[in-house]
Design a protein that fits this description.
alpha/beta; Rossmann fold; SIR2/SIRT2 'Small Domain'; 2 domains; 3-stranded antiparallel sheet; 34% helix; elongated; binds nicotinamide-adenine-dinucleotide; binds zinc ion
Length: 247
């Protein structure tokens, strides 16, 4: 396994198709806590109480209260950081075909990335649990929780709760990118949530180089061709600079 940013940049520059897989870690420097690890949301909130679809069905007001707190404390204020901007720049230069993100914060799009697959959905839109009518987030009245549709049904964000399937189109396109790419840049994910965690493994099985960016070792580190240890903002910025020498 290699640790050279320059060598990793060379692999990315030479790839016919490179994709990124990102997780909560890429948004930590934007002020959004990850799920696991120090300061993670799961130190404060039990995931099975707050992140499972059964919990949402049983106690939507309870889950909405936490969602609202996370929204007002972090998501609502967050701006893209150097890592989001670096991936957008790589796409503009033709060095990255897509970003597959497990995040629901919309920061890749805010940074200018165009080809973004939201593997776990997004907080940007909502729909009614009963009549399925879409509800733009801006129009939702959060004065009384849970927010409700005109039909009386509970509104839910278009995120994937635990216990729910990944949207078919996102799953199929991501798996296709994983099979076809020559390099996959994995940034800020603990690689514990399936099926997202299998994407780098699929890529590797099909001959791609795996480049991991994370301050900590993960389950993916041993299968990675490159382990670039450090915070996403600094490492991705250095990768983008190093790409110049190889384009
Ligand atoms: P995770 O919380 O399981 O792991 C976060 C990873 O990020 C860890 O490996 C950690 O070492 C790493 N990390 C911490 N700081 C970093 C930094 N500055 N730079 C790079 N890496 C850093 O996250 P996950 O693997 O994405 O899985 C958790 C699930 O939580 C995902 O499904 C995601 O949808 C959801 N989630 C999303 C957000 C968001 O939208 N921003 C926030 C929290 C959780
Ligand atoms: Zn409705």
């Amino acid at each position: 396994m290699q640790t050279s940013i320059d060598a990793a940049a060379r692999v990315l520059a030479r790839a016919n198709m490179a994709v990124a897989l990102t997780g909560a870690g890429i948004s930590v420097e934007s002020g959004i806590p990850p799920f696991r690890g120090k300061g993670g949301l799961w130190e404060r909130f039990d995931p099975m109480t707050y992140a499972h679809i059964d919990a949402f069905r049983r106690h939507p007001e309870k889950v909405w209260t936490v969602l609202l707190k996370v929204l007002s404390d972090t998501l609502g204020k967050a701006r893209p950081n150097a890592a989001h901007r670096g991936l957008a720049e790589m796409e503009r230069r033709g060095c990255l075909q897509a970003v597959i993100t497990q995040n629901v914060d919309g920061l890749h799009q805010d940074a200018g990335s165009r080809e973004v697959i939201e593997f776990h959905g997004s907080m940007a839109s909502h729909h009614c649990m009963d009549c399925h009518q879409a509800a733009p987030s801006a129009t939702i009245d959060l004065a009384d929780l849970p927010p409700r549709c005109d039909c009386g049904g509970v509104l839910r964000p278009d995120i994937v709760f635990f216990g729910e399937a990944i949207p078919t189109a996102a799953l199929q396109r991501s798996a296709q990118f994983a099979r076809m790419c020559d390099a996959i840049l994995v940034v800020g994910t603990s690689a514990t949530v399936e099926p997202a965690a299998t994407l780098p493994r699929i890529a590797k099985q099909h001959g791609a180089s795996v480049i991991e960016v994370n301050p900590e070792p993960t389950y993916l580190t041993t299968l990675s061709d490159f382990s670039l240890m450090g915070a996403a903002g600094a490492i991705v910025s250095r990768l983008v600079t190093a790409l110049d020498a190889h384009l």
